[in-house]
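Researcher: Let's do a round of design. I'm pasting the C-alpha cells now; please hold your answer until I've finished.
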C-alpha cells in the first residue's frame, strides 16, 4: 500500500520501510499528529531534522523502520537519527532468516498498514492475529482511539472474523476489547466466554479480574432467569379470567422487558 500525498496538501511525511522490503507510505502529517500522541510529541521534537535526503526535500518529514538491538522487534525513527546504512540493510535482506523479526515480518507490515488505514479512515479487514498486532502497534503509537473507532466497520467487512474467529478466540479477544474500549466486541466476547447455559464457562479465564467479572455477569443472568420463571409460574397459577391467554403472555413479556429482563 502506498498512500500518496495530494499536491494541495502540506506537511507530507514519508515512511521508508527497509525492513519491510523497501515499502513506503506517503501520508499527511496533520492527520497523523491528530490521532497519534506518539507522532504529535515526536515529529516536531527539537532533536529531529526535517527534509531528509536532497532527493526527498518535497517531504517535510522522513522516518524509517529500524530493528531493535535483539532483532526481535522493530520501531520507526527519524531518518536523521537512524544509524542504519545501505550495507546494513543489504545484510538484513540477505540473512533475514537468521533474525527473529523476519519470521513475523509480513504480519508486522500488514499491521502497520492497517494502523495507518485506521488513522486515515480508510477501509481494512482483520483476522484474529492481525487484530493482536494492530492493537499492540496502536498502543505503542498511542493511537488506540483511532483503531477503536474504525474497528466496527473492519469487523463488518471481515466475515470470517464475525463467526468462527469470535467463537474460537473469545478469551484472547476479551483483553483486546477492554484495551480498545470497544463495547460491541466486549459484549460479544464476554457472552461467548460465558458459554451455553448447560455448560457455563466453557472457556477458562487466566485473569482474575476477568474471571470475577464473568462470574458476576453469569450470576446476574441467572437471577433474571429465576425471576422470569417465578413470574411465569405466578401468572399461570393466578390468571386473569377476563384476559385471553395470548394477552396475558403479552402483558407478562411487556412487564419483564420493562424490568430489564
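Researcher: That's everything. Go ahead.
Model: Designed sequence:
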Amino acid at each position: 500500500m502506498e498512500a500518496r500525498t495530494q499536491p494541495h496538501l502540506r506537511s507530507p511525511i514519508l515512511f521508508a520501510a527497509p525492513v519491510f522490503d523497501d515499502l513506503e507510505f506517503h501520508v499527511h502529517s496533520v492527520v497523523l499528529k491528530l490521532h497519534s500522541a506518539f507522532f504529535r510529541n515526536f515529529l516536531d521534537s527539537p532533536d529531529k531534522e526535517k527534509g531528509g535526503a536532497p532527493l526527498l526535500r518535497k517531504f517535510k518529514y522522513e522516518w524509517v523502520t529500524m530493528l531493535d538491538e535483539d532483532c526481535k522487534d522493530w520501531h520507526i525513527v527519524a531518518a536523521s537519527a537512524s544509524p542504519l546504512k545501505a550495507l546494513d540493510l543489504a545484510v538484513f535482506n540477505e540473512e533475514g532468516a537468521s533474525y527473529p523479526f523476519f519470521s513475523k515480518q509480513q504480519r508486522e507490515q500488514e499491521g502497520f498498514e492497517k494502523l495507518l488505514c485506521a488513522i486515515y479512515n480508510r477501509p481494512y479487514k482483520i483476522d484474529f492475529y492481525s487484530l493482536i498486532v494492530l492493537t499492540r502497534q496502536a498502543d505503542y503509537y498511542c493511537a488506540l482511539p483511532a483503531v477503536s473507532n474504525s474497528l466496527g466497520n473492519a469487523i463488518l467487512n471481515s466475515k470470517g472474523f464475525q463467526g468462527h474467529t469470535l467463537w474460537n478466540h473469545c478469551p484472547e479477544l476479551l483483553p483486546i476489547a477492554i484495551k480498545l474500549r470497544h463495547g460491541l466486541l466486549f459484549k460479544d466476547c464476554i457472552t461467548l466466554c460465558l458459554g451455553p447455559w448447560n455448560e457455563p464457562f466453557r472457556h477458562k479465564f487466566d485473569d482474575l479480574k476477568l474471571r470475577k467479572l464473568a462470574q458476576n455477569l453469569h450470576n446476574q443472568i441467572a437471577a433474571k432467569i429465576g425471576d422470569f420463571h417465578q413470574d411465569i409460574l405466578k401468572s399461570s397459577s393466578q390468571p386473569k379470567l377476563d384476559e385471553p391467554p395470548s394477552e396475558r403472555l403479552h402483558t407478562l413479556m411487556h412487564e419483564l422487558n420493562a424490568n430489564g429482563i
